[in-house]
From TrEMBL:
Domain of life the protein comes from: Eukaryota
Name of the molecule in the record: ER membrane protein complex subunit 1
Signal peptide annotation: 1-21
Residue ranges occupied by any ER membrane protein complex subunit 1 C-terminal domain in the UniProt entry: 762-979
Principal subcellular localization: endoplasmic reticulum
Cited SMART domains: PQQ
Subcellular location: Endoplasmic reticulum membrane
Originating species: Trema orientale (Charcoal tree)
Pfam family, one: Beta-prop_EMC1_N
Length: 980
């Protein structure tokens, strides 16, 4: 009986849930999916003759991937967790990819051909330390070789076959900071060298078979050490002294011997700060000083000599073993619009094995990393290929003086998104249209007819899908009447802009922002993008543009930088390096005569600066001066403050600068509450109506205010990961705060609950997701807020006679009486992000877009999160559409917007309204990109794209022909009847 009830309830819920399943030939018609890996930081080549040539890489997005060396395509890929950064990779036994991650605590082996996990080892340690991975190059397949891993203060020897820890040596009690693990070839002794404090050098000799300590040598160096120690050979280490003015070579075999060499011997008396570059050249190392890189060779007894001096823009690869005793490396730099690549032998510096130049687009910036690999040419000489990582995080493969392939992997690190309309279709704007001949046109409609009549073969279905994907209307560079074709302008962590076409996801243009790359701007951070100019129909001669805001430095008080970019051409219109900092940007709802949007930039001293800095802008702004408010949230201190502008004083610079005044503040006690999440309404959200008609034709009025802020706090003990606190120690408190007055409109406590909290605010409701420790399940709660001061407007006669207050202005300073309704539901999944659909007029019903832990996007009807749901709804509530109450929210497989695809590393979702009221455009980004368009209430205002116009035309022609034939037959019958 219980099972029957569950089945009946599931069927009932299905009736209320729109279905988003796709037919096989519809995949890719309205959506596209792009896969990336991110900025490469480690690479290992595998180019054996019997196998497919590939390169295995790890990236800053915690991705491990195997790439095809011929085309750059992904063979396989794994995206590790956000806290599982890769420390090193290598290849063992010719068939395993070995990866070390999580600060040296997780060692994995992946099957090289298909990427399946072979084994995984968790390495325990007692203190944080540098992580090191050592995989011997002479591994034999039939022998259980040892992989050495240093991390968490311990040295582990791990079996390369099954991942078992053979032995462990703990250095936690030794107080040594291990810098290098040295395993000489064909030796049973392992050396661990490092420093204790800043001046004591230690070297440990360890038995490679059982981890037994054989010998420990230590010696004090009076000058002290600075920075890392680099391995030059099996018995020699080099370091900088504490003053960074002397190079110290340390020979640790047969006792410890120090030898100092002053840097003035190489560069003269005048030199700046020296830095040892972390290269692995044999018997050689590199020092960056005075804008140059010195290559220094260590000769007998620790003597040093300069081999070469190159510009510091050059990048050096790790060494590549060509044959016994021959080691090569690459020296590469970018200049004059070309990549200059040189391959040299370590022991024969003057002879170049390879020297070539490759032309390159300047929009990729400078070179940051290079990895080389060799192959045998037909003449039996050594050829070289170079894998190059550029400043914009793109990846290139160079071979034989040309770029074999390139990957735009900067798109894996998007930090902000904006959209732009395409140009209006007119002469010189639209792209060339490929005209099809009559035969192809007839063939296409015949295939569509066969598909409609279910007579299409699998080949015909594939042909129909191909025709749809190649539809020129989808990828035109002009606007369409439905508003489906747009440009998605994305900003990446590297400071590069991309414009993606919504039709097929192609890159229309890209720009590596020059204003963020000049010599005055070091380490640009805090990047964000805003709509700057959005011309309407009366200003179509102006191109739309966006504003990019950044900081030239890591700290919040670093000076800001602004860049203005044309979204049609991708050209930087202008840029500005500011003298003040930027901690907050407020896009105002005011525009000037050229449709430029006014923005307020707030610095660390709470001074406000108006942009654009024009007389017209300041004139418009002064009319709304008294209505400008903003707030700040300091989660670390638990303080929320509200501010307003005040007239200029002596502290400000000019007429475009303003002081601020404190209005209110809310301080959360640090011993009981910690802010973990906030949410506010979108500034451009459209609300169709304030009234909500409920059962029995009653009316409730939504409390619509763009000044509401949702705040979630948790108990300090419950601010960590789930399970770190008991239910009795945990509570979650949520607030609705008016940011103009600081008034708390609503407060609710969830006992026994904790974060992480993900929330979305829309119209008069907020939905948030959290974890219930008592129930051991995730929950989603909804709060709806209504305006009771307009309840008297329900009288029809008052509406007819005009005696209502619907048009009276609303002020946050008037103490509006509000009423709230709330409800909580269990939810199966953990959540990464929550968004809500948005449409042009706000008429279409809302859907929640939930980014799940499985990196998929689930569409959930807002009606499932209606706080008025009850177990036994009345007949009037059923007619209204109220769904019977259940304790859990349903997850229907057909409701996944991403269907069978995964957006790996999902970080955010952006929804954009189309001109067609029924449709919302959805863009999801992470390591991958995904775009689609959805209709929460189905496409009630248009025909679907797969509507068969050919069949409709044939039907009309057949009906006309039938009418004509029957008319003729009727005329003949009437004539015969008259002759009788």
């Amino acid at each position: 009986m219980a099972m029957a009830i569950r089945v009946s309830l599931l069927l009932l819920l299905t009736l209320f849930q729109p279905i988003f399943s796709l037919y096989e030939d519809q995949v890719g018609l309205m959506d596209w999916h792009q896969q990336y890996i991110g900025k490469v930081k480690h690479a290992v080549f595998h180019t054996q003759k019997a196998a497919r040539k590939r390169v295995v890489v790890s990236t800053e997005e915690n991705v491990i991937a195997s790439l095809d060396l011929r085309h750059g395509e992904i063979f396989w890929r794994h995206v590790l967790g956000s806290n599982d950064a890769v420390d090193g990779i290598d290849i063992a036994l010719g068939k395993y990819v070995i990866t070390l991650s999580s600060d040296g605590s997780i060692l994995r082996a992946w099957n090289l051909p298909d990427g399946h996990l072979v084994w995984e080892s968790f390495l325990q340690g007692s203190k944080p330390s540098k992580s090191l991975l050592s995989v011997p190059t002479n591994l034999k397949v039939d022998k259980d070789n040892l992989i050495l891993v240093f991390g968490k203060g311990s040295l582990h020897a791990v079996s390369s076959i099954d991942g078992e820890v053979v032995w462990k040596k703990d250095f936690a009690d030794e107080s040594i900071e291990v810098q290098q693990i040295i395993r000489p070839s064909d030796s049973e002794v392992i050396y661990a060298v490092g420093s204790v404090g800043s001046s004591q050098f230690e070297a440990y000799a360890i038995n490679a078979r059982n981890g037994e300590l054989l010998k420990n040598n230590g010696a004090a160096f009076p000058g002290g050490f600075s920075g890392e120690m680099l391995l030059v050979s099996d018995d020699l280490v080099v370091a900088l002294d504490a003053t960074k003015s002397n190079l110290v070579t340390i020979n640790f075999h047969d006792g410890i011997k120090f030898q100092q060499t002053h840097l003035s011997n190489f560069v003269g008396d005048s030199f700046g700060t020296a830095v040892l570059l972390p290269l692995k050249l044999q018997e050689m190392f590199a020092v960056e000083i005075n804008g140059f890189v010195l290559f220094i060779r260590a000769t007998g007894k620790g003597n040093l000599e300069v081999v070469d001096k190159v510009n510091n823009a050059a990048v050096v690869s790790d060494p590549l073993l060509l044959s016994e005793g021959q080691t090569a490396f690459a020296l590469i730099h970018y200049g004059d619009g070309k990549i200059h690549l040189t391959v040299k032998l370590v022991h024969d510096w003057n002879n170049d094995l390879l020297k070539e130049s490759v032309a390159l687009d300047h929009q990729r910036g400078f070179i940051q990393r290079v990895f080389i690999n060799s192959y045998i040419r037909t003449d039996r000489s050594n050829g070289f290929r170079a894998l190059v990582v550029m400043e914009d995080h793109s990846l290139l493969l160079l071979q034989q003086g040309a770029i074999v392939w390139s990957r735009e992997d900067g798109l894996a690190s998007i930090v902000d998104v904006a959209t732009s309309e395409l140009p209006v279709e007119k002469d010189g704007v639209s792209v060339a249209k490929v005209e099809e001949n009559l035969f192809e046109w007839l063939k296409g409609h015949l295939l569509k007819l066969k598909g409609t009549l279910m007579l299409a073969s699998p080949e015909d279905v594939a042909a129909i899908q191909g025709m749809r994907l190649k539809n020129s209307e989808k990828s035109k560079m002009t606007r369409d009447h439905n508003g489906f074709r747009k440009l998605i302008v994305v900003l990446t962590r590297a400071g590069k802009l991309f414009a993606l076409h919504t039709g097929d996801g192609r890159v229309v243009w890209s720009l590596l922002l020059p204003s963020l790359r000049n010599s005055a701007c070091k380490h640009p951070t805090g990047l964000s993008i805003y709509q700057w100019q959005v011309p309407h129909h009366h200003a179509l001669d102006e191109n739309p543009s966006v504003l990019i805001v950044g900081r030239c430095g890591q700290s919040s008080d670093a000076p800001g930088v602004l860049s203005f970019v044309d979204t049609y051409t991708g050209k930087e219109i202008s840029s500005s390096s500011l003298t003040h900092s930027i901690i907050h940007v407020i896009p105002l709802r005011l525009t000037d005569s050229t449709e430029q949007r006014l923005h307020l930039l707030i610095d660390v001293n709470r001074h406000a600066y108006l942009y654009p800095r024009t007389p017209e802008a300041i004139s418009i702004f002064r009319h709304e001066f008294s209505n400008i408010y903003w707030y700040s949230v300091d989660a670390d201190k638990g303080i929320i403050k509200g501010y307003a502008l005040k007239s200029n004083s002596g502290e400000v610079l000019d007429e475009y600068s303003f002081d601020s005044r404190d209005l209110w503040s809310i301080v959360f006690p640090s011993d009981s509450e910690k802010i973990i999440a906030t949410a506010a309404r979108k500034l451009n959200e459209v609300v169709h109506t304030q009234a909500k008609i409920i059962a029995d034709h009653d009316i409730m009025y939504k409390y619509i205010s763009k000044n509401l802020l949702f705040v979630a706090t948790v108990a300090p003990k419950a601010s960590g990961e789930i399970g770190t606190a008991t239910p009795e120690e945990s509570w979650l408190v949520v607030y609705l705060i008016d940011t103009i007055t600081g008034r708390i409109l609503y407060r609710m406590t969830h006992h026994g609950s904790q974060g992480p909290v993900h929330a979305v605010f829309s119209e008069n409701w907020v939905i948030y997701h959290y974890f219930n420790l008592r129930a051991h399940r995730y929950e989603m709660s909804v709060i709806e807020i209504y305006d009771e001061s307009r309840a008297a407007n329900k009288d029809v006669w008052k509406l007819v006679l005009g005696k209502h207050n619907l048009t009276s202005p609303i002020s946050s300073y008037s103490r509006t009486e509000v009423v709230t309704k709330s409800q909580s539901y269990f939810f199966t999944h953990s959540v990464k992000s929550i968004s809500v659909t948005s449409t042009a007029k706000g008429i279409t019903s809302k859907q929640l877009l939930i980014g799940t832990i499985a990196d998929q996007v689930l569409a959930l009807d807002k009606r499932f999160l209606d706080p008025r749901r009850s177990v036994n709804p009345t007949q009037a509530e059923k007619e209204e559409g109220i769904i019977p109450l259940t304790d859990s929210l349903p997850i229907i497989p057909q409701s996944y917007v991403t269907h069978a695809l995964r957006v790996e590393g999902l970080r955010g979702m952006v929804t954009v309204p189309a001109k067609l009221e029924s449709t919302t455009l959805v863009f999801v980004y992470g390591v991958d990109l995904f775009y689609t368009r959805i209709a929460p209430s189905r496409t009630y205002d248009s025909l679907t794209e797969d509507f068969n116009y050919a069949l409709l035309l044939i039907t009309i022609v057949a009906l006309v022909a039938a009418i004509f034939v029957t008319w003729v037959l009727s005329e003949k019958k009437d004539l015969r009847d008259k002759w009788r």
